[in-house]
Design brief:
Layout: H1 3-36, H2 39-51, H3 55-59, H4 72-92, E1 95-106, E2 112-121, E3 124-137, E4 140-147, H5 151-157
Antiparallel strand pairs: 1-2, 2-3, 3-4
Protein name: DUF4878 domain-containing protein
Transmembrane segments: 12-31
Keywords: Membrane, Transmembrane, Transmembrane helix
């Protein structure tokens, strides 16, 4: 193989590497955005927003399921206010989520998730493995219900989201 052929091969390798790098640079932001749309990301964000007391943000992930004939916007706002006040009352009583870890989503039939929560009950840390069910709304999913957690915490945090307040 002469020098000219080696340079030709090297040049095509360099061009291929540059093209691959360019494609990856274009595809990475798209993949990153789609990751944010995953249920795992949304579930983690939901609990982390509760932990960080960003209740308005957390409520965006909740299916508030309105059954009444009230104006939909007004009903949503009323449920949001009641839900947030319950979370604040719970925190004032010394019960709060400290950490959310190990979020796993099973999409086999209909999406359900499990989450490991560390809950602080008046200074005592307890671990809970909870179940999360989702409901499809428009083109995405929201949290419908939470189960397998201490009844008082479940009711206060978000377990019976769809119940009338």
């Amino acid at each position: 193989m002469n020098l000219y052929e080696r340079l030709k091969i090297s040049r095509s390798i360099v061009i291929s590497i540059l093209m691959l790098t360019s494609i990856m640079a274009l595809v990475y932001p798209i993949l990153k955005k789609s990751q944010k749309e995953t249920l795992q990301y949304k579930t983690e964000k939901f609990f982390n927003d509760i932990i960080n007391e960003q209740y308005d943000e957390a409520f965006k992930f909740v299916d508030y399921k309105e059954n009444s004939k009230q104006d939909l916007v007004e009903a949503k706002e009323n449920k949001k206010i009641k839900w947030i006040s319950r979370l604040r009352r719970q925190r004032a009583n010394g019960v709060r989520i400290e950490a959310c870890t190990k979020v796993k989503i099973d999409n086999t039939e209909y999406p359900v998730g499990t989450v490991r929560l560390i809950v602080n009950k008046k200074g005592i840390l307890e671990e809970y493995i909870i179940g999360v069910t989702y409901v499809r709304i428009n083109d995405g999913y929201k949290i419908r219900n939470i189960s397998k957690i201490d009844d008082s915490i479940q009711e206060e945090i978000c377990g019976r989201i769809v119940e009338t307040y």
